[in-house]
Amino acid sequence: MEEIAIGPVHPAMLEPHRLRLFIEDEIIRDAELTIGSNYRGIELIMEGLPPEKITNLAEKVCGICSHIHVWTCVRVAEKGCSIDVPIKGEYIRAIVEEFERLHSHLLLFAHMYEVLGFETMAYRAFMIREHVLKALEYITGGRVQYSCPVIGGVRPRCNIKKTFWLEEKLDFLEEGIKKLLNRTIKDPMILARTKEVGYLDKETAIKYHATGPTARASGLSCDLRKRDYMPIYNNFEFEEIVLDDGDILARLLVRFYECFESIKILRQALEDIKEMEDRVYNPNYTLREFKPLDIYHEAPRGVVLYGYGLDENWRVRQVLIRTPSLTNLATMEAILPGHHVSDAEPIIVSCDPCFTCTDRAVFKKEVEHVRDRNLRN
After folding, report:
1. pLDDT tier at 363, thresholds 50, 70, 90
2. Residue-wise pLDDT tens digits, 156-174
3. Annotated binding residues for Ni(2+), as ranges?
4. Residue 356 counted as domain residue
């Protein structure tokens, strides 16, 4: 067998990873995916800090889905300290999250088209995504890093008072995504590279703990928005998208259909907040000591987990962060054997990986330095 190494830098991927393919007659017999090029140690840096300060670090875990990390992070403190959040604040959190889902899925479409060699389609996806970023900038003031949720609600600058402009954006986005979908399912070249390629059966998805659209494309129902983990979503009518084909095309289609469901949620949310009072933040909360507890949320890529507790000095302890890409990447690595070598990168990309948010380890000397610094502060 021969070995082909892809990475740690690939022209179509924004983050470094190393993929070793062991091939025979251009057919993959074994694969080894190596991550860990982005050592940051965010969990250990959080140790010993006040809960209000770790949200700045949580936002840096992932540059694409930064909002859901901050939202999950603050909900740990809100649950542990029994802090009430104004209903409009919760609605704005959900609105920003659904726009972020659109932004994340459109970015995945662009990357997939790029690795398939369809640069024109990639640019079309980016053009549609630009309008999502403008909507996020209108709400929060930021295009990718929003700094929207805080303990007790959202920042006052994120208070949505005029919704008509956002509603017009939704009409444009729906039409643009429909055109992108129609072109995708009718293009014979795209279908040749994605249909019946990278098949992930339901049993393998369960075995490797696949999550998010990657799992739902293989017949697994796992959307936490439908399971009371995110109670605000009980106020909206939307469908959980589950397909059974399990190939690259199915993983794309799940995300396409989820975009339309996100637009449906956004229209309902923007209509509901018109009648709500302007209060979006509860400043009258009190921190108290609580044992470590976990909060699960549905991120665009799948389940994200934040867990920590507060000590008697109201400092964060025993931080745990789990992101969805770790198990999804393991799943993609498992299904690579048997495919042509040219299908390797599209299969990896089809789970919408985020390598940076998966890599959070640090070296021992950095651990000691961070721990000593936080204890001194």
Report:
1. very low
2. 999 898 888 999 999 999 9
3. 65, 354
4. yes
Per the annotation, binding residues for Fe cation are 65, 357
Give the residue numbers of the binding site.
43, 62, 65, 321, 354, 357
Is residue 292 a part of any domain in this protein? yes
- Evaluate if pTM is beyond 0.85: yes
**In the chain, how many domains are there?**
1
- β-bridge mates for residue 299, sequence order: 302
Is 113 a domain residue? yes
Alpha-carbon Rg of the chain, whole angstroms?
A: 21
Structural domain range at position 56:
52-376
CATH code where residue 141 lies:
1.10.645.10
pLDDT digit string, tens, across residues 113-148: 998 989 999 999 999 999 999 999 999 998 888 999
Is residue 171 in a domain?
Answer: yes
- Pick out the residues of the known binding site for Mg(2+): 43, 62, 321
